[in-house]
Amino acid sequence: MAENTPKKKQNGEYTAEDITVLKGLEAVRRRPAMYIGDVSVRGLHHLVYEVVDNSIDEALAGFCRNILVKINKDGSVSVIDDGRGIPTDIHKEEKRSALEVVLTVLHAGGKFDKNTYKVSGGLHGVGVSVVNALSEWLEVTVKLGGKVWYQKYRKGDPVAPVKVIGTMAKNDKTGTTVTFMPDGTIFKNRTFKFDTLAERLRELAFLNPEVTLEITDLRNKQEQTEKFHYKGGLSEFVKYTDSTRPSIMRKVFYAKGEGKDENDRTVEVEAAFQYNDQYSENVFSYVNNINTHEGGTHLVGFRTALTRSLNTFASKNNLVKDDKIQLTGEDFKEGLTAVVSVKVPEPQFEGQTKTKLGNSEIKSIVESVIGPALSDWLDDNSPDAKRVIDKSLRAAEAREAARKARDIARRKNAMDGAGLPGKLADCSINDPDHCELYLVEGDSAGGSAKQGRDRRFQAIMPMKGKILNVEKARLHKMLENEEIRNIFTAIGAGVGEDFNPEKLRYGKIILMCDADVDGSHIRTLLLTLFFRYMKPLIELGHVYIAQPPLYKLKKGKNEQYAFDDEERDEILKRLKNEKADKRAADDETPDEGAVVKSGVVISRFKGLGEMNPEQLWSTTMNPETRTILQVGIENAADADRTFSILMGDDVEPRRQFIEKNAKYVRNLDV
To answer: Which whole number is the average pLDDT over 482-499?
Structure first.
């Protein structure tokens, strides 16, 4: 008879004992990034979005009209809606309240029942339960069936069963209130940003014109509140996005319609667009309120309908005089600001970030809605249509000029031999996943960086002065700028219609600029270049910002660096109480402009060029000790509008932006 006693494991042996089974929400707490992306500020705000999305799903189903988000005095957040309320009756299989099931079981909810929610943004069914799991505490109150139900949880576990705590008043509406405090052991920073949350609520208000969304911040003495409700929906979204760019159209195009998918279910299609007098394209697409950064079949359908309708109008009205010019989809992108939104019963997502719609039938549905509506609109708004065609013809001429400029650049690179910029100090490793490119402000800092770097994986390219503001220039003008051409060549992924992220030569592209006004301007110019012409690099997480220290504090031989005023003051407090070596203190010669406080010499770096190679390596370039910020796009529409404000022609919005954000500027005085 065989014994059941476990045998002693051999080295490296993999047995059933190695299999860990996580129960309930334990998996979420163990690996939170799998569910919310990360545990940084971005992941923190994602918790609120998950709860709000549940309320929006109620709105999509036709049962919710008001959503309120409150940042409470203690830093917790409440989301209040007037939907139907989460069911509180006993779940047959779980033998406990459905409310508790929804809050504690992954993949539990009405999203999997096609009759409860026809379409939904929270299709994974993990939203509110994940928020519960990652909260120090969470309270939920439901008004339903004339009663007020309540339950509290700690780190995902119920403190007590669901109970009735009162009755609904005569004029009370049904609804759900969720209040939660993020877990401080998971989120190092638990401070919610009012503006970040407001941007998402504004976006949802544009996409759902029947809903009013409001956010209130109770943390300060003076309560801050913003309310969002846009009857014009996508048309107002386009106008808002383009508010800093003059439109060449008197009227925004808008169309809405329906089609049937392969299972004979209704798909709703909405689109709005207008053209401005600028050169970049700003198109935002959504599926069930989810921003599809990578586009998908709905966007392909929109572009096809746009290109075909505009070409037909141009041909019918004999607007293309030159037989050598043939308008393509690329020509109709210049100056286009558009929003495309579809409501799909069961969307299939693909792509690296899972934000690309893959349902093949959606393309033809969007075409069938937008195409006829746009053709009629063009005939009814002939002056606007002719201005769009005229702009597209100029874009076609610029496209040809850009092609010639690229050809010249390619031939020039071929004649130069390897084709890389002469000022680029490349690294020896060829694997992009292990290589990084520093774009460094100034030849002096570039020289220090070249000497201080690790030559195996770090490439350095100094930049002389400020690059061209690409917000105000077409592609062929950009390619005439040597600094921009060098950046494109060094990165190796191409530009415009030739852009291919798979050809990227470096996994990390790090912008290293001085911590002053000029450095900030150069960094903004570079970010504008990446956002407008190499956006996938940002979306795929390849772009970073170096964080050089602002201060050097020295007492005797003890030398430390501070990256902001707060850290400077903390280090100063520590060093005050330390005894310095007398000989080292006597030999100390303070840097020019340095300040001595309590025996501590405080120097402020005026620029990267002031650091020697060893300092630059240890503070800013050494992967073991440096701090670099990854550039991401939280909200593409707001990012586009911000770049337009900062780098566009209109001065007044820029002044207002500076006045509003001046409070975030660091005090640079010692």
So the answer is: 85
Beta strand pairing call for 147-154 and 157-158: antiparallel
What is the chain's Cα-based Rg? 29
Query: What distances in angstroms separate CA 128 from CA 51, 88, 131, 222, 292, one per listed residue?
Result: 6, 15, 5, 30, 22
CB contact at 8 A, 298 and 307: no
Return the structure tokens found at 555.
Answer: 């007492």
Residue type at position 375:
S
User: pTM of the prediction?
Assistant: 0.75
460, 561: one domain: no
What gap in Å lies between CA 312 and CA 372, rounded to an integer?
12
Q: Which run of H or E residues covers position 568?
A: helix 565-576
Task: Note the pLDDT of residue 16.
Answer: 45
Q: Is residue 5 part of a domain?
A: no
Tell me, what's the pLDDT at 605?
Answer: 82
The pairing of strands 508-512 and 436-441 is parallel
Tell me what the pLDDT averaged over the chain comes to.
Answer: 85
Considering the domain architecture, whether residues 300 and 419 belong to the same structural domain is answered as no
Domain end marker among 184, 200, 228:
228
Lowest mean pLDDT among 92-96, 117-121, 195-199, 356-360: 117-121
Per the model's pLDDT, the better-predicted residue between 27 and 338 turns out to be 338
For residue 54, count CB atoms less than 10 angstroms from its CB and return exposed for 0-12, middle for 13-18, buried for 19 or more. buried
Dihedral Cα 603, 606, 610, 616, nearest 10 deg: 80
Please tell me whether residues 450 and 567 are part of one structural domain. no
Give tens-digit pLDDT for 362-406.
999 999 999 999 999 999 999 999 999 999 999 998 888 877 766
Q: 């941007």: which residue's tokens?
A: 199
56 in a domain, yes or no? yes
Given this model, what pLDDT does residue 518 score? 85
CATH number at residue 607: 3.30.1490.440
Same domain membership, residue 493 and residue 586:
no
How many domains are contained in the chain? Answer: 4
Q: How far is CA 355 from CA 347, 348, 351, 636, 654, in A?
A: 10, 9, 7, 13, 32
Mean pLDDT value across residues 134-147 = 95
CA-to-CA separations, 274 to 131, 271, 314, in angstroms, rounded: 39, 11, 17
Residue 23 has a pLDDT of 52
For residues 218 and 360, state if they share a domain. Answer: no
CA atoms of 47 and 182, how far apart (whole Å): 8
Looking at the fold, whether 165 and 251 belong to one and the same domain comes out as: no
Say if residue 211 is in the same domain as residue 355: no
The CATH number for 88's domain is 3.30.565.10
Q: Any alpha helices (H) in 416-458, and if so which ranges?
A: 443-452
**Residue-wise pLDDT tens digits, 598-655:** 788 898 887 788 888 998 998 899 999 888 989 988 777 777 777 777 777 676 777 6
**Residues 276/242, Cβ–Cβ less than 8 Å:** yes
- Active-site positions read 441, 514, 516, 518
SS3 label, residue 26: helix
Q: What is the CATH number of the domain that holds 412?
A: 3.40.50.670
Residue 88 and residue 166 share a domain:
yes
Q: Say how many residues make up the chain.
A: 670
Range of the domain at 114: 26-228
Residue 396 resides in a domain: no
Asked, for residue 14, whether it belongs to a domain, the answer is no
Higher pLDDT, 579 or 434: 434
Spatial contact of 632 and 540, defined as CB atoms under 8 Å apart: no
Coil, strand or helix at 224:
strand
State residue 519's pLDDT score. Answer: 86
